[in-house]
Design brief:
By secondary structure, this protein is an alpha+beta fold. It has a domain at 20-155 and 164-175: Immunoglobulin-like (Sandwich), CATH 2.60.40. It has helices at 2-15, 177-211, 224-230, and strands spanning 26-28, 31-33, 37-45, 53-59, 65-69, 76-81, 87-97, 102-110, 116-119, 121-126, 130-133, 145-149. A five-stranded antiparallel beta sheet has the order 6-7-4-10-11, with no helix packed on it. A four-stranded antiparallel beta sheet has the order 1-3-8-5, with no helix packed on it. The radius of gyration is 51 Å and the shape is rod-shaped. The chain starts with a helix and ends in a 29-residue tail after the last helix.
């Protein structure tokens, strides 16, 4: 009976696959369509009981086009670029992930045009040592893998369209997507306030114009000549003659004849 038990345990050990470490760096979503521009999040748990995780280095796989790397409070984000401006690695430093906790680090980019598997090799840095998550799937230190398939339609980001990844400049790296979104929102708010103020000013000006009484046009000075000509004359009134009239001469009487 004891021999049978030992043989059974040995057979079970042969049949069971190797179990990788339960707490390792993972990427989500783990599957994406070709040419899919979206946010891919790396989850980093702290496996040490007496050390903080103080850094994460991620090597970007060939074919993945990075648009933005997340800027986290308390962390410094640095992007290494190739001579052509495309990103090749992202580094997060300066922060801390305490024991029994985990942190998340987001990458926003586009998958390649062909189906493939993308391994995001990561190095998790502790206070006194580091852990490399660069192995093959099923190993004790597997790298996070994103499987790219041709089935399905690429998931659209916020806004309803699949956006193209913007090119990186040689000094790219520190500004994240959140800062860009905040800048655009602030600009839109300023423009909206300016438009409202202009509309209010136009309304006030229109109201003042309507309430103001009309100013009569000034009259031309009166012409005395015209005023005298326009003065109505009484009916049958003769024009005034300033020369005095001579009374008519009385007829002379003849002397009476003598008797």
């Amino acid at each position: 009976m004891r021999r049978i038990t030992v043989l059974a345990l040995a057979a079970g050990a042969v049949l069971l696959p190797a179990v990788p470490a339960s707490a390792h760096v993972e990427i989500s979503p783990a599957t994406a369509a070709v040419k899919q521009y979206a946010t891919y999040t790396l989850t980093v748990p702290n496996e040490r009981a007496d050390q903080d995780t103080i850094g994460l280095d991620v090597t970007l796989p060939s074919g993945f086009v990075l648009g933005y790397a997340e800027q986290l409070p308390g962390w410094k984000t640095t992007v290494d670029a190739n001579p052509d401006g495309t990103a090749r690695a992202v580094h997060w430093t300066g922060g801390a992930i305490p024991p029994k906790t985990f942190g998340t680090f987001a990458l926003r980019g586009r998958t390649p045009a062909a189906a493939t598997s993308l391994a995001f090799k990561a190095v998790q840095r502790y206070q006194r040592e580091s852990e490399s998550w660069t192995g093959a799937p099923g190993s004790d230190t597997p790298a996070p893998v994103l499987t790219v398939t041709t089935s399905g339609t690429p998931a659209a980001p916020a806004g309803g369209q699949v956006a193209a990844a913007p090119p990186l400049s040689g000094s790219a790296g520190k500004a994240g997507l959140d800062s860009l979104a905040r800048s655009r929102a602030a600009l839109a708010l300023v423009l909206a306030v300016a438009a409202l103020l202009a509309l209010a000013a136009a309304g006030v000006l229109l109201a003042i114009t309507r309430r103001r009484p009309a100013v009569p046009a000034p009259k031309a000075p009166a012409d005395p000549t015209n005023e005298q000509a326009k003065t109505p004359q009484p009916h049958n009134q003769q024009p005034h003659n300033h020369q005095p009239r001579t009374p008519p001469a009385k007829p002379k009487r003849k002397p009476a004849p003598a008797r």
